[in-house]
Amino acid sequence: MSTSTAAEELAGLSATTLLRFATAGSVDDGKSTLVGRLLHDSKSVLTDQLEAVEHASRSRGAAEPDLALLTDGLRAEREQGITIDVAYRYFATPRRRFILADTPGHVQYTRNMVTGASTADLAVVLVDARNGVIEQTRRHAAVAALLRVPHVVLAVNKMDLVDYKESVFAAIAEEFTAYAAGLGVPEITAIPISALAGDNVVEPSAHMDWYPGPTVLEHLETVPVSHDLTSCHARLPVQYVIRPQTPEHPDYRGYAGQIAAGTFRVGESVTVLPSGRTSRIAGIDLLGQKVDVAWTPQSVTVLLEDDIDISRGDLIVPSDDAPATSQDIEATVCHVADTPLAVGQRVLLKHTTRTVKAIVKEIPSRLTLDDLSQHPEPGQLVANDIGRVKVRTAEPLALDDYADSRRTGSFLLIDPADGTTLAAGMAGESFATAEKPAADAADAGADEDGWDF
């Protein structure tokens, strides 16, 4: 079997069997209990893990095992009965493999949901059936929409506490669906559950025969998720330049990195950004073998016909599909640091493998997530704020719209003093229903270490 054929089969297997999903919801909505129930009822918990949970539950006076303890691993989480950090869990069923991110519910930990959902194919938003859709529910729906999560599940939990009434579920589902659809969420599935009792989590509920749809696990196993990024804009961020300069390879010069999206072929005309120089692909090395074609997310080394200056942070793209480069970036950012982000602040901007100096030139607005209103010219963003920013970089960058590529349309703003991540950015429009902002004229000027770009 050729290397290309084996790689194609492996890529196809991963694409059809892997689902990344995140859970979100307000405090005490039962996220960790749902995750624990999923793991327990799908028989994805080791015996010693279950014994540890049973022991911890007994020590707290609980008659039954508290399945939430399967995910709440920090001491502070167990003591307070809340989730503080993102908890990642890996489990599998015969039909699919899963990477799960259980995110916190407190408002002050909304930034952790950004971390957990940034790579998710699906988000499970929990709602307490007694409380209905609240501000934090709308906040999580908005974050999922901003991050372009393609599938959202509304899990109406604690149905056992409202006597499994269909009318309660229907009212909540209608309100949430209308709100999320207005944000541009492409697919919303509502499921009534009781995580504590196990209703409609893995097994169908005997108490809700009025609900004809799938259980949570059944939906997770069957939701169509496409990991095929081979048809997207081809992008290869250069991570390392390989020059062995050995007797066996005296003239070898390869450009190594992980293909962020799309497909590259030997003989294809490519452009190196931001320099704009062009060449053709002379060869592609994959796992020590020469191949004619490579695609995302393979890590490869590309050889070019021409000896041109390329270094870490450059972007190799097809010549007929090259993105525009610019020093002026307008984007939506989720502020994740405890220190504010202010107009005029000097930052570092990291895009794929490239990091450049930048200045925050303007913060046009801050988003109020409960009603999606815009607070104009706030002057700064604080922890958990989401807002629009305009950034001027010292060097041109080639960003795609986040709507087109979550990988090459995203970036980080970093504190140059201590390396702290300040904000996660998404280039282009905010929501799928929003209009594209008008482009500002670029103001000239730059000064080495003056940071007045």
Explain this structure.
- With 453 residues, the chain is of the alpha+beta class.
- It has 8 helices and 25 strands.
- It has helices at residues 3-17, 31-41, 47-59, 75-80, 110-117, 135-146, 166-182, 216-222, and strands at residues 18-25, 87-93, 96-102, 122-128, 151-157, 188-192, 236-237, 240-242, 254-258, 263-265, 269-273, 277-286, 289-291, 293-295, 299-304, 315-318, 326-335, 341-342, 346-351, 354-368, 373-376, 380-381, 386-397, 410-414, 421-427.
- Strands 7, 8, 9, 11, 12, 13, 15 and 16 form an 8-stranded antiparallel beta sheet that branches. It has a 6-stranded mixed beta sheet with strand order 2-3-1-4-5-6, with helices on both faces. Strands 17-23-20-19-24-25 form a 6-stranded antiparallel β-barrel.
- Strand 4 (122-128), helix 6 (135-146) and strand 5 form a beta-alpha-beta unit.
- Helix 5 runs parallel beside helix 6.
- Mean pLDDT is 83; it is low at 6-16, 73-84 and 434-447.
Layout of SSEs?
Layout: H1 3-17, E1 18-25, H2 31-41, H3 47-59, H4 75-80, E2 87-93, E3 96-102, H5 110-117, E4 122-128, H6 135-146, E5 151-157, H7 166-182, E6 188-192, H8 216-222, E7 236-237, E8 240-242, E9 254-258, E10 263-265, E11 269-273, E12 277-286, E13 289-291, E14 293-295, E15 299-304, E16 315-318, E17 326-335, E18 341-342, E19 346-351, E20 354-368, E21 373-376, E22 380-381, E23 386-397, E24 410-414, E25 421-427
Parallel strand pairs: 1-3, 1-4, 4-5, 5-6
Antiparallel strand pairs: 2-3, 7-16, 8-9, 9-15, 10-14, 11-12, 11-16, 12-13, 12-15, 17-23, 17-25, 18-22, 19-20, 19-24, 20-21, 20-23, 24-25
